[in-house]
Design brief:
three-stranded antiparallel sheet, 12 strands, globular
């Protein structure tokens, strides 16, 4: 169902920006309302300005967050900007210096905000660019990118009035939360988390929002639900996403139809995706030749040094087909990029304290290599 896919893909649909899509989603509401509320337990906000599906994960994972943000200061800047916008309605204008003064006076971290520091200015520009792109503010005059280089840069902004809809309503007082687990658990309050409607919501969310759902053993209530209700889950996924659900002994995966054009899926057209496919293929070949022993839970455990050597062999074999960025990348940076990417997609899990990497079942699910003619030509 295209309308549901758009709700998953986009943070929200703003009427002023895309009135046609807004009306299409609004008119199709009855088709997906039951699935959204009964199976996912999501709230669908729909008003005269914006439509937003509040997409909460079934389980928090390391890749979740704003992809362009690199540190906690940038998330803090975003929260402070939202506070700044609370008293400003749609069309109210303000300048950059008002924002910088408000942030300096409000920032709660141990480190003081100092706009003479390039990294602080760069972080603010990144957050303001995000706020503009997502529709919280508009730039009426000026160029915020100049603020990275020149502290005295001034920009005229306009509030869209949408900031009040950006943050979801929490069931508890967020000031009492000490970790992401408090947010995760707060939604369910005192309801038994492994039974009934709560488990159903959590399982559907994990299947739709996560690259893989792995079994954590015989007592794993979520995986037991997946196995017991596989047929129903498959039907719902086919109806809503025109895709399929693959359930194995130790892992369940939502496999999208190749015609789908979601962002941030694996595989895609990025070079890092190609490299990962090639690494996966090399691992599968080694398993088939009996060079690696699979553990009972379909996991391979290797040293970090072994994995680095695997990446080096992959580079020697396939590098001529990579983009210039990855051809010229140092091995340390390449290892960092590959591990970050594969970890985000649930293919590996690194234990940095003992320098050990667990290669997870999804790694063997999708593999790739260049045609033999290409390799011979190289």
């Amino acid at each position: 169902m295209k309308e549901f896919e758009m709700l998953l893909e986009k943070f929200w649909i703003i009427k002023d920006r895309d009135p046609i899509l807004y009306n299409v989603i609004k008119d199709a509401g009855p088709k997906y309302k039951s699935f959204v509320e009964d199976k996912l337990g999501y709230k669908l906000m729909m008003n005269a300005y914006v439509i937003k599906l509040e997409k909460l994960p079934g389980q928090a994972e390391s890749w979740m967050g704003i992809s362009n943000f690199d540190n906690t200061m940038e998330y803090a800047f975003l929260c402070i900007i939202l506070m700044f916008l609370e008293d400003r309605g749609a069309g109210d204008q303000f300048v950059l210096s008002q924002v910088t003064e408000f942030i300096q006076g409000t920032y709660p971290g141990d480190e003081n905000v100092d706009w003479t520091l390039y990294r602080h200015r760069k972080s603010l520009v990144k957050v303001l660019s995000f706020a503009t792109e997502i529709g919280l503010i508009k730039v009426d005059d000026g160029d915020e990118l100049r603020f990275s280089s020149f502290q005295e840069t001034e920009v005229l902004y306009e509030s869209t009035g949408l900031s009040r809809y950006f943050v979801r309503n929490f069931t508890g007082n967020v000031q009492n939360y000490t970790s992401y687990l408090d947010i995760e658990n707060g939604e369910w309050l005192d309801v038994a988390k492994d039974r009934g409607i709560i488990r159903r919501h959590r399982v559907y969310r994990r299947l739709i929002m996560s690259p893989a759902v792995y079994s954590e053993g015989a007592e794993d209530a979520d995986y037991a639900y997946i196995k017991n209700y596989k047929g129903l889950l498959q039907k719902d996924i086919e109806d809503m996403l025109d895709s399929s659900l693959h359930v194995h002994k130790n892992g369940a995966f939502l496999v999208l139809d190749p015609t789908k054009n979601f962002k941030d899926v694996f595989p895609d057209h990025k070079t890092i995706s190609d490299i990962t496919l090639q690494i996966n293929g090399m691992i599968v070949e080694m398993v088939d030749r009996g060079e690696m022993e699979i553990e009972q839970n379909d996991i391979l455990t290797v040293s970090r040094q072994w994995f680095i050597q695997l990446i080096e062999r992959c580079r020697q074999l396939y590098m001529s087909g990579w983009s210039k960025e990855f051809r010229e990348m140092s091995i340390d940076q390449l290892v960092k990029e590959v591990l970050s990417y594969m970890t985000g997609f649930g293919m590996v899990d690194e234990n940095e304290s003992i320098r050990e990497i667990k290669i997870l079942p999804l790694t063997g699910k999708i593999i790739g290599q260049y045609p033999s003619a290409f390799i011979q030509a190289v």
